[in-house]
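Justification of computing resources. Each target in the renewal requires a structure prediction run like the one illustrated here; the chain below, 326 residues long, is used simply to show the kind of job we budget for.
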Amino acid sequence: MIPRHVPLVVTTRGGATEGVHFGSVAVVNARGRLLFGAGDPRALNFTRSALKPLQAMPFLEDGGMAHFGFGSHELALMCASHSGEAVHAALVQGILARAGNSARQLQCGCHVPHYFAAAGVEAPTGRKWPALQHNCSGKHSGFLAWCRMREKNVAHYLDPAHPLQQRIAVLVRRYARGGRTVRGVDGCGAPNYVLPLAGLAQLYAGIAGGASGAQRAIFYAMTRHPDLVSGTGRFDLALMRAGRGDWVTKAGAMGVHAIGVRSRGLGIAVRIADGTPYALQAATVAVLDQLRLPVAGLRAWRHAVMRNFAGRVTGGAKPVFSLTRA
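Resulting structure tokens:
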């Protein structure tokens, strides 16, 4: 079924509306009760990289951190969509080596590291990038470490029938809110799942609430090292710095963003249907603002300025929605 999205963000040119970005928002409490929403907060959406903290939970629940002597830096990388900066690649290499694995076993492939787009510089052409710099390499290194610890097949760690992926599927069902857990394949090759937007928000409310040891460890690692979860100039880094240790946040491809707010016991999930990053960022900051959370340092993300190739301002983007009480 097609979600009943509503206009969340518009782009303007010459004072007139030029583009409209549709989407939905869900805000839930720690018990998963829908408090506020916009559009279709119960519709199914692929979670993409917003699922990464949950995908790290089997490793935590089985004692992987103590088994290999990992700390919060390594855990942050397992939950990351990192920029492929030198610090990220080095930490992933360390996770692999300590678990007795190598970069050759990573099955995520690679792409141009996110660092270049975030820094506004052109990436070198004709270069083949190593898998260590793939934004999901931390997640994959965690998968491989779990396989070594549990003496499970390493070569097929992405197979949906693999014991690790079966464990993750069980965890996903906790947040399906009684609905289906349709499985797909993420860009990095790992199984990925649809959840109701409110279910994804509930996942992050749980991480922020920290009822389990795994949730507390993930919250600490991500909020302590937001530069490892994302990278220089990235939106998740800006969000978690603005939250001052109170907000755990994670973006996903194709217009998904999830946030847990510890002090308020809230989980937030935002979806922009066409996946446009600046629209997702504007909508996310608008949600935080409407919930009366401190967004003073995030104004530039809320009102994106559009420029042409000569650098002249041609228009902008602005949120046009209001949250409604459920």
